[in-house]
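User: Good morning. I'm curious how zinc ion would be positioned relative to this chain. Could you predict the structure with it bound?
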Amino acid sequence: MTPQSILREVFGYESFRGPQAGIVDHVVNGGDALVLMPTGGGKSLCYQIPAIARQQAGHGVAIVVSPLIALMHDQVGALHEAGVEAAFLNSTLDWDATQDVEFRLQTGAITLLYVAPERLNTPRFLGLLDELHAQRALSLFAIDEAHCVSQWGHDFRPEYRALTVLHERYAGVPRIALTATADALTRADIVERLQLEDARQFVSSFDRPNIRYTIVEKKDATQQLLRFITREHPGDAGIVYCQSRKKVEDIAETLCGHGITALAYHAGLDNAVRQTNQNRFLREDGIVMVATIAFGMGIDKPDVRFVAHLDMPKNIEGYYQETGRAGRDGLPADAWMAYGLQDMVNQRRMIDESPAHEEFRQVMRGKLDALLTLAEGSDCRRVRLLAYFGEAYAAAPGRPKQGAAPWGGSEDTSVPSVGARYFCGNCDNCLNPPAVWDGTDAARKLLSTIYRVQQASGISFGAGHIMDILRGKATEKVAQFGHEGLSTFGIGAAFSELQLRGVLRQLIAMGALAVDAQAFNTLKLTDLSRAVLKGELPVNLRESVSTPTERKPRRDKPGGRATPPAAAALNAAGLARFAALKAWRAEVAREHNLPAYVIFHDATLAAVAERCPRTLEDLGGISGMGAKKLEAYAAAVLRVCAGVDSN
Ligand code: ADP
Ligand code: ZN
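Assistant: Good morning! Here's the predicted structure, ligand included:
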């Protein structure tokens, strides 16, 4: 079969997306490829279709290297549903099951085999591969989550380093490495580590137009999160990232206390508990997973409607990767982060205290700074995010025109305070351009206070005390050190504490102020401080937004669940069919021990519900209905629809 007919018949999709066709073509013909494509872009088909095509052409089995043991069962299950012979080998299989897979492998009965890198590197498995290679029965190697090979990535796995063996030991077998994130440094590292110098690179746009980015100032983070979820995402599936295990558990408990079905996930939990929670998140509707970054890689649940960060990630790659788990189905989704001064201080401290050598820490500081600049910025988040990955945001059909201000004015009028020339129309700064104020005066007052205090007392102090002096507050500590006598005492009384915190964050983000983690997070001047003090370096700040951007809640009726975006276009009869189809799908999924979306996506069920099918022909051409699924489920789907319509 041609790739196009495999796409249509096996997967039920009409056409390739973006660069898929070119990638598939290249690999089918035996080329090596490095694929950089955002989450939800459709990476899996880039190796699954070549695997099927090459096996049909007599090239044998494709080996898929993936770090995600806990997800292999579902990945293979999804292929079975589409009628593809797939299997996995990992530590969850018992001896009999392992032998069975190995036997099927040797007899050419498997099209795709998923393995973890640590399994691949065992002598037993390499022996099997040697045999297959000798028989010219290895069709290709797919290296999923390829950024795991790089220490600059955010999920470094030392076992990935050993994958160079593929290239040397199995010469001539095409390799395709895939990742959803890689800045220039990480990309170069992947190429070098996996020796992909001669591979063709396919770099997609990293834009995720359906994700709305919002970064709010942290005040009472838990309350802010609760408001965000109950107003904008009632009943939706989402992920909440926190830094510490303790916080994960506290937040999960708080959410549950407010009637939200929340589960916890972190590396300190028992393996069985983690697996159960992950399975529930994947299999049930509307669960909120509160997690550390240990959760999420490879999670292919398509209808995660929001990703919230209660603590700031380490860098933009982490932020992009984590937020990218929202909205794989292409429907509207939110990336929401609350961040504050403490986040900056914590992240800096973790870098300073890490045992890594200085060169490495320097790179990490640079990466953190880029994220701080994103958070502090008053211009389009998307433009900055994409710029970080070396991409210039460009207008595309269906997107607001470049430079077109979302409030309807033209670029050069009304709101000159917005720095960016480009507007994506789908981030907080584009939707509600923040006012910008000139914080240079406040910054100079703040820096000179730090200088004076240091001069007068010979020691440094933390942010709280400095702000008290600046605002002229007669605290005990002020009295203790006689700081009310300083010439800067009270000179910042006109600024609110919120404003001064903003100034502090901005100065730290700019590098004009340092936080000394070794000395109780005290504030230290830097070389750049001088430039600010002398007025050579302006400090522009976004006005603290006291009321965060609020959208009209998507809730349909008070206390009710929101209509999933996939079903937004349905009328009452269609909604009834959709609900019945979902109930039927849930049963099938339970029987097969698979997540519901592996059986059919919401969008596929919505398309069925809209069409009101009576016959098999009526189901033709619905996206996501491959030949095998049609054969297995058409009768049941027609029966469910008929049952609803006869009522
Ligand atoms: P990634 O691995 O890049 O995050 P997936 O391979 O999981 O993305 O694909 C994301 C979703 O898009 C999946 O549900 C997949 O079935 C769907 N998809 C991929 N390619 C196509 C296509 N050409 N047409 C329609 N849907 C597609
Ligand atoms: Zn924007």
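Residues 13, 16-17, 20, 37, 39-45, 300, 302, 328, 623 surround adenosine-5'-diphosphate (ligand 1) (CB under 6 Å). The chain has four domains: 3-203, 211-378, 437-542, 565-645.
Let me know if you'd like a different ligand tried.
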